[in-house]
Specification:
Shape: elongated
């Protein structure tokens, strides 16, 4: 009986924690052709603006690294 009660309470606790997320998170994707390949970045965020900013910063960093590592074109 104690075991059943323990399991039931744990399940209720776990299920209730899923309903606490009031913000709806969405998945955002963006692809660009960088470093001779298609690079796709996926971001999960509750804000399209935050996701876009994060993806833009990530692509800018990949571009910066591509310029540093590319031995065929001058810096």
């Amino acid at each position: 009986m104690k075991r059943f009660l323990f399991i039931t309470l744990n399940l209720l606790l776990i299920l209730s924690s899923f309903s606490c997320n009031l913000r709806k998170e969405e998945t955002y994707r963006k692809s660009e052709f960088l470093m001779d390949t298609i690079v796709t970045i996926t971001v999960v965020s509750d804000s399209e603006k935050k996701a876009g900013d994060a993806m833009d910063k990530a692509f800018a960093e990949i571009k910066r690294l591509g310029q540093l590592l590319n031995s065929f074109s001058p810096p």
